[in-house]
Write a structure and sequence with these properties.
Elements (H helix, E strand, L loop, with lengths): L2 H12 L6 H6 L2 H9 L1 H12 L8 H22 L2 H20 L4 H11 L6
Helix pairs in contact: 1-7, 5-6, 6-7
């Protein structure tokens, strides 16, 4: 995963603009949640997560990942009012940042990060 993408995600999390305003205007939350629960997406996400070896993270790195995930959750819950959507985005940030810190290069995680880097939810 490119370091520039990670730095971009860190920046947008810090300034509260992880997802673009245009994305929010077009989003049907219920439909998106159904998509996230679909077998294809869920299976790919779980497979990527299972490849992480979280025990390789240092305590300071674990804390940073928790903070980035919390920031994502807070931004999405404020913007959408959906705790389920906020949890998905928070989990995505956890996956992306853990993979980066652990040096895991995984196609699904790169694609996930790419969507967020563009200010949109992964589809």
């Amino acid at each position: 995963m490119q370091e520039t993408a990670i730095h971009h995600l860190q920046t947008v999390l810090q300034n509260g603009s992880l997802l673009s305003p245009d994305m929010w205007e077009q989003l049907d939350i219920e439909r998106y949640l159904e998509y996230r629960d679909s077998a294809d997406f869920d299976t790919a996400w779980i497979q990527a997560y299972q490849q992480l070896r979280r025990e390789g993270l240092k305590p300071a790195e674990e804390e940073r990942v928790r903070e980035w995930s919390r920031q994502a959750f807070d931004q999405v819950i404020r913007a959408s009012g959906s705790s389920e959507l906020a949890a998905y985005v928070s989990d995505d940030m956890d996956l992306v940042f853990c993979a980066y810190l652990l040096g895991l290069d995984h196609e699904f995680i790169r694609e996930l990060a790419g969507h967020y880097e563009q200010g949109e939810l992964p589809v």
